[in-house]
Amino acid sequence: MKVLIVEDSIFVQKLLTKLIVDHIPECEIQIANNGEQGYNLFKEFQPDFITTDLLMPGLNGQEMLRMIREKDSNVKIIILSADIQKTTRDEVEMLGISGFLNKPLTAEKATTMIQLIQAAYHAE
């Protein structure tokens, strides 16, 4: 399984990488620091799963998600963001996300994220 982490916080990048590798050791992970890098890596890496922040400099997560959906309607995407506006959440949910978790990442939210990734992994 291939996972793309799109996140501008190095701390969150490391936290998510450790979390995923600890639970799904055979997982291949790529990291992007912003939406533009994320979209380019998405095209190159062709991940099965993407976790992304929404609030990033340059191309934000929402714009990146729209661009990804134009190319691939099946890739699983989890949003992990501090943006808690209902309109934002409604918009990204209409683009077909697998989950939306609010930051900060707690133990309970981390468990939910791993369960979503594992469910997608075992569905293949």
Automatic annotation (TrEMBL):
Which UniProt key words apply to this protein? Phosphoprotein
Enumerate the CDD domains for this protein: REC
Residue ranges of every copy of the Response regulatory domain listed in the record: 2-118
- Positions bearing 4-aspartylphosphate: 53
Organism superkingdom: Bacteria
* Pfam families from the UniProt entry: Response_reg
* Record InterPro entries: Bact_response_regulator, CheY-like_superfamily, Sig_transdc_resp-reg_receiver
Its name, as the record gives it, is CheY-like chemotaxis protein
